[in-house]
Amino acid sequence: MDNLLVVSHSPHISGKNTVRRTMLDVIIALIPAFIAGVLVFGYRAAVVTVTCVLSCVIFEWLWNKIMKKPTTVGDLSAIVTGMLLAFNVPVTLPLWMVVIGAFFAIVIVKQFFGGIGHNFMNPALAARAFLLASWALAMTTWVAPHTAVPLWNTADVVTSATPLAAYAGTEGTVQQLPSYLDLFLGNVGGCIGETSALAILIGGIYLLARKVIKLRVPLTYLATVALGTWIFAGHDGLFTGDALYQILAGGVMLGAFFMATDYTTTPYTPVGQIIFGIGCGVITVLIRVWGGYPEGCSYSILLMNIVTPLIDRVTAPKRYGASKRRKEAKA
Amino acid sequence: MMLKTFHGGVHPNDMKAPTAGKPIVELDPSKEMVYPMTQHIGAPATPIVNVGDYVFAGQKIAEAGGFVSACIHSAVSGTVKAIEKRMHPNGLMVNSIVIEDDEQDKVCPDLKGCGDYTKLTPKEIIDVIKEAGIVGLGGATFPTHVKLSPPPEANIDYVIINGAECEPYLTSDYRSMLEIPEQIIGGLKIVMHIFGLKEGYIGIEDNKELAIETMIAVASKVKDVSIHVVPLKTKYPQGGEKQLINAITGRKVGPGQLPWQVGAIVCNVDTSRAIYQAVTRGLPVMTRIVTTGGDCVKNPGNYKVRIGTTLSSVYEQTGGFVKEPAKVIMGGPMMGMALPNLDVPAIKGTSGLLAFGEEAAHGFEENACLRCGKCVYACPMRLLPNKLDEAARIDDFKALEKLNIVDCIECGSCAYSCPSKRRQVQQIKVAKDKLRAAQQRSK
Ligand code: SF4
Ligand code: SF4
């Protein structure tokens, strides 16, 4: 036998885990929230989501084409970004803004920094922040659940307050707060994919079971928000806040399970992840209680994204056997 | 029950089912037997025979080339045909002794056991082991006599037989534990005697239930000393020396340390068998139990192969292939070495031969690192494989040293767990070589 065999370095086998499989899992995990979004906000939620996903995929593909790089659409990460961005905008957002948001997420935040694995901020959240800064009104036009929203001209729909705004009382008028059940099921106003805690939990449990994410970040994040809002967010002094309401309402559920667990933009060390979760929680509480803005989830994650490299550096695992070094010889 | 284990690691599919039930079958030597002078870690051995000499089976044909080295014996009787460069399984041309088998199997008359070894001093026993050319037969091939000669200040209180066999596919140690448990425990007792110990340990992964039962049964009959069979969690790399010591003793072999510095000595199952045979019967290392497997082989199984037998002969005798292999690995799939061709011989460290077809042979395409941290969780040495990979690609030696590249045991857990299929181990190995070369230059 003199035919040449393939010679390569060990290991010669690899786990089944791939980027594509991971992204597919995230997509599967996002489907319950998508269904909830459509049930609560009607068909336009689906239109916004599909527009966003398609735009993201097309921008990713175009970028690769223009830069003459192999296409990375197959890793499915653009679909995840598209879904997450769509889930973070109101159902009434004009479609052209959705497309611009997708462009910002994929081209500016992700590809300018080198593509998958290299962006330092969560593309979907950065794009949401960009949209909010550019078109504040359109990004805060909330409708009550089951409001018929026209496809094109959405400017004159009847608006309502989101549960968090109602709680903070920033909308001026006294509003009836939704029940816990409505909050849990998602039968409230808000962004397309963030309202149903139930749907997000189903997806989150799936991700945990598939070992795509660890419980560390969602747990520390939600616990910090609960604790912080219980202490500080009450209307009748310290320790009167409604912690359950605060974590069920708004974007923290979606953020905790799907955005604060993003691989690329959050720490990879176990201790770092705990710091990250607590950090997000603290910033969210700061914004909600003293920031004059009822949300706070996405900014908290974005801010923590920025310090992620630093967190990773200071929480690097200790060298094996270095801490408890035994005496060279006992004799 | 909480099974003993270590931190990190991965859970590859163990793939042991096809061969676990296959008893060890003895194979014939090949007509031409090839003995590379480097079958161990350390200095190459020096030939002590000449072309044309007649040699017996078991006769020493090469002397150790220094203290950290090992001698080599012929596994057949026959004539020395050549002493020349031949291809080593690692792909390099290495000085080798080629012997033509006369098929007489005339055994060297000098081979005899040393009777009651408890009457010998540790030094005398270690000399017997050295003369038998014993090295770490699990694949590490570090000369055993060196391992058993720690400096005088060492205080060894743990002697451990490594029966973890954590590499997927391999079942040769498992079969040995089922078929010749007395010899393995006999070897352990000899090592215990060297260090004057009354207790010894055998660590076995819990997916080898039968082996655990068998070893416990044999160990319970041992008088005077006590042998503890320790079931370990099935997790790769449980059989890594540092991981095994940690699991059994709770001690950690620190950076730059050797096991004796934490009072432990570890020997592989087959090494223990070789020690037993050398001390009680005077037999040098002439055979190795090899598991053959992979999707290309006709009859996966466990074979007793004489060292020096060419691999093409091993495959001929075992039914060959069902399809053309594209990659053949010596050792296990996690740490084994891909062979250049099948004309190379079985050597002392050949614990497995795995033949894979086209699909399995070519690695996956690499993607950008996602920073997912899977490699960080998997690394049993608590390194940052993602960072090592990154630094190695740009030859950032300063960063590599800071990241403790020297601690890497090349276990492959990082690359195995990586969703982006990064080849961290390849990068690390190449970088280690470059670092070594740079250090040598600066000396
Ligand atoms: S960096 Fe080295 S020790 Fe750590 S998992 Fe990778 S190969 Fe194993
Ligand atoms: S496992 Fe791979 S993708 Fe994940 S951090 Fe390590 S190198 Fe990067």
Walk me through the structure.
The complex is a heterodimer of chains A (331) and B (443). Chain A has 331 residues and is mainly alpha-helical. Helices cover 56% and strands 0% of the residues of chain A. Chain A has a single domain (19-314), classed as Orthogonal Bundle (Ammonium transporter fold), CATH 1.10.3430. The longest helix of chain A has 24 residues, at 43-66. By secondary structure, chain B is of the alpha/beta class. Chain B has 15 helices and 17 strands. In chain B, the strands form four sheets. Chain B has a six-stranded mixed β-sheet with strand order 1-14-13-17-15-16. A four-stranded antiparallel β-sheet of chain B has the order 2-8-7-4, with no helix packed on it. Chain B starts with 16 loop residues before the first helix and ends with a helix. The chains are: A mainly alpha (331), B alpha/beta (443). The interface between A and B is large, with 46 and 73 residues. Bound molecules: iron/sulfur cluster (2 copies).
